[in-house]
Each structure stands twice: as C-alpha cells, then as structure tokens.
Amino acid sequence: MSSRYDFDLFTIGAGSGGVRASRMAGAAGARVAIAEDSDLGGTCVNLGCIPKKLLVYASHYPEAFEEAAAGYGFTVGPHSFDWGTLIANKDREIARLNGIYGRLLDDAGVTLVRGRARIVDAHTVEVAGRRYTAENLLVAVGGWPSVPDVPGIEHAITSNEVFHLDALPERVLLVGGGYIAVEFAGVFHGLGSQVTQIYRGPLFLRGFDDDVREHLAGELRKKGLDLRFDLNVAAIAKEEKELRVTLTDDSELRVDQVVFATGRRPKTADLGLEEAGVELDAGGAIVVDAFSRSSVPSIWAIGDVTDRVNLTPVAIHEGMCLVKTLVEGKPTSPDHAFVPSAVFSQPPIGSVGLTEAEARERYDEIDVYRSRFRPLLHTLTGMEEQTLMKLLVDRASDRVVGLHVVGPDAAEMTQGFAVAIKAGATKAQFDATIGIHPTAAEELVTMREPVAE
Ligand code: NDP
User: Fold this and answer.
1) Which of the four, 75, 100, 320, 377, has the lowest number of CB atoms within 10 Å?
2) Residue 260 alpha carbon to ligand 1 centre in Å
3) Interatomic CA distance for residues 394 and 427, integer angstroms
4) Distance (Å, rounded) from C-alpha 338 to C-alpha 327?
C-alpha cells in the first residue's frame, strides 16, 4: 500500500465488521484508522445480539421455576424480579466488552478516531473538523431501526430503547413479524409482561420455512402470547397513564409501551457517499461487487450497510475476506451460501439452507423429512410444548439442502449440523451418523421415512 496517504485503510464504523477488518489489517502490517461516534462494538455488542441474548436468558427463569416445580419435585418459594438489576448487570457486561474492543484495536496498532465521519472524496474522510487521507476507505456503519410514519409514532420505541427502559412494562405491543419482534415478544412475555404482537401479513417470519412459521405461532399462542396477523397500527395516542393504540381493524388496545420492530435501514444518510459518487440502492444500501467494492474503486463496504445477509458473523466474514483482498493481495469474495441463523424466540428456531418452498423451486424432486415430538424434559413438566424438526433432501444428489429446528437448543444444534450441510453432506451420511441418546438432536440422524407427497 502507498504512503502518499495518512493511512492505508480508514474504516468508518467500529461494529462487528469494521473492527474485525481493521484489526486484522493492522495486525498484517497495514496502517489503519477507524472512526466511531458511539460505543465500540456496534449494534451487536451494544443494542443487538449480546444484550438481547442476556435478556432472553433472563426471561427463561420464570418458566424454568414453573417447570421444576410442576414435575421435578421442587418447591419454588416466592420470587421477584428486578428489571433495574438486570439492566445494570447487562450494562456492566457491555462496558466490559466495549473495553475489550478498544484493547483489540490498540493491540493491532489501529488508530481510533472519535467522532462522526464524513467522506469528503474518494480518499479523504473528515472527523470532528480534521481531515484524514487513506488509500482505501471502508464503510461499515451498519443499520438503524426504521419505523413507519403513523400518527403518534413518537410515542413508540424501537429495540434500541428497550435496552434502557426504566421499568418492565406491564402491557406491551410489539409491531412487526421479523427476528426482532419475535425475540422481544418472547423476552417480555417470559419476564411477565402481557404481550400482544401484531404482524401486517397472514403469518409472521416471512422468508422462513412455512412449517417453522406455523409451528412457532402455535407454540407462542399455547404459552399465552396474543399473536394477531393481518393487522397493523393505525394511530397511537398518549393518555395520562397509558398508550391508546388504534389498529387497522378499528379495534383499540391500551398498553404501556409500543415497540416497533419493522425492519432496519442502512445508516448511509449524511455520510457524503452520494457526493463521492458511491452508488446506493433504493433502500439506501451501498451497492458492492463480489469483493465488497463500491462503485468508487477506493471505497469498500461490509456488513448491514450493504444489506446482503444482515448478521454479525457474516459481517465479520466479509471483513476477513476484505483483508485478504486489500492487504494480503489475495482477492477473496465472501461466501453467502448456507449461512445458518437462529431466532432466539421461545422456543428458538435454528435454520440452515433452503426452505421447503425454495427447495421445491430449485430441484426437480425433493424429499421432506419432518418430525414433531414432545421433548423428554416436558414428560415430567406436563407442558405441551412440541419440537419441530425438518430436513429437505435433493433426491437426485441425496444432498441435505435444508435443516430447520424449532425447540430448545435449536441454535446450538443447528451450528453443528451447519458444518455437515456446508460440506455437502448427503442424507445417507446423516443416516450413517450415530445419534447421541437421549437428545433431541438425535432425531435429525434418525429420520427414516419422508413425508408423503
Ligand atoms: P426484519 O426485516 O426481519 O422484519 C421486519 C418486520 O417488520 C417484517 O415482519 C415486516 O413485514 C414488518 N414491517 C416492515 N415495514 C412495516 C410497516 N410499515 N408496518 C408494519 N410492519 C412492517 O427486521 P427486524 O427489524 O426484525 O431485524 C432486522 C435485521 O436484524 C434482520 O434482517 C436480521 O438479519 C437481523 N437480526 C438477526 C437476529 C438473529 O440472527 N437472531 C436477531 C435480530 C435481528 P413483511 O414481512 O411484511 O415485510
């Protein structure tokens, strides 16, 4: 890289993707700077995956007390829950992670520039009134919640604010049917709030396998979550002690909080991108080629700001590929095939590969293996929760092209099976694998009969 510039690489945004790319580039000998105007670690660490998962853990306890007491012989005494303690402990852990991110950057010799960055031209960035030049710029600014323009929207919050609420709301309305809405509906319900979730279409989690969507809806309703589909918010009015929400069917709901989880948008406004000639798509995402290069040859982008597969491990992977391309001289394009993912709903979902609808479209003939059963745990709790497992197999090659689980530990299971599926495992190889007994996961290697067409 050239020394005509202050740096070889200047990264905007110290989230999962930006930090990984910067510190790997720094460790490989490049002169790197990274700008951040908020806490280090980005959405995942501060307002996403990590604090969300901690809240999900917390929200399991009330049900666990009940399970233990119901059938396993425990007497659980009176217990109470303090939201403030949970939030304070969560904040302490996040602050620790912020510190680790800072040290990782430091150790890799990366210069941290505090402040909001703006691109001036193809090789120049301005932060807090100072200009920095670099041979390459990397935009890794992520996304931000997007809410529709309904009357009274200012009374609603997004997932960002949930992490710092003063108190656990008694009654909550969740709006949306994606990952975030489903996960937070579970968190609030688990902690004891009265939860209503509405989704504008006929069935939530669009894009997931249809059996998975139906199964989860059924399980959530069994738990007492009020799920309503084909419904949206028409208006929100603030009354003295509550919010009055008018829905599109003219019904009304009175709640303490309304949380909109209606998607996220790339955070590309006011960055100087358009002026520098960087092409954005209709949704505001940076258009990149297979190597994460934008329409301006010296400007690159990774992570949610490119709206490819919006997941932390994918942003990290894109960052690692970029370092190979830019610093190691080995052009490497990220691989977005067979990316496993989970929804930390209750019960959670794990998925890798195609949905049944996608598999039917892609292959001439597929076999579908499906199993529903009551997990061993619940034989004594008396709970009616059912687990769903599903495998999709391309009949011609015998390759397993989709795996879907709804049930306890679905995410942990799916991570392991994702290795096999990524490696191209066939159904015969699944069948040749011995199960671990007694587990739920063993079902995935013992499904013998495809469901009838
Ligand atoms: P999603 O895009 O997944 O879901 C948005 C939801 O809001 C959809 O149900 C959508 O409906 C609905 N919606 C959009 N606009 C409106 C509107 N105007 N009125 C009513 N409903 C609307 O976004 P999320 O916010 O849930 O998550 C953002 C991203 O974060 C995801 O892409 C995901 O990759 C990532 N994420 C991943 C997690 C994980 O891996 N566990 C956890 C949380 C987030 P429709 O389907 O009809 O478009």
Assistant:
1) 75
2) 10
3) 9
4) 27
| Statement to judge: residues 253 and 271 lie in one domain | no
Number of H helices and E strands in the chain, helices first, is 13, 21
Q: Which residue type is seen at 258?
A: V
Cβ burial of 63 (10 Å; 0-12, 13-18, 19+) is middle
Q: Which among 441, 421, 368 is positioned nearest to 211, based on CA atoms? A: 368
Per-residue pLDDT of 396-440, as tens digits, reads 999 999 999 999 999 999 999 999 999 999 999 999 999 999 999
H-helix segments, 34-178: 42-47, 49-71, 83-107, 159-162
Average pLDDT of 370-389? Answer: 94
Please indicate, yes or no, whether residues 219 and 312 belong to a single structural domain of this protein: no
Q: From ligand 1's centre to the CA of 199, what distance in Å?
A: 10
Which structure tokens are listed for 146?
A: 């997007």
pLDDT digit string, tens, across residues 70-102: 899 999 888 999 999 999 999 999 999 999 999
Q: Tell me whether residue 336 is in a domain.
A: no
Average pLDDT over residues 8-18: 98
Instruction: Using alpha carbons, list the distances in angstroms from residue 118 to 18, 45, 247, 321, 371.
Output: 16, 23, 40, 25, 53
Under DSSP, is residue 144 helix (H, G, I), strand (E, B) or coil?
strand
State mean pLDDT over 352-367. 98
For residue 180, give its domain range.
153-262
Q: Are 85 and 27 contained in the same domain?
A: yes
Q: Are 399 and 392 in contact (CB under 8 A)?
A: no
pLDDT value, residue 66: 85
Band of pLDDT at residue 448, cut at 50, 70 and 90: very high
Atom number, ligand 1, closest to the C-alpha of residue 179:
26
Task: Please report the atom of ligand 1 found closest to the CA of residue 309.
Answer: 34
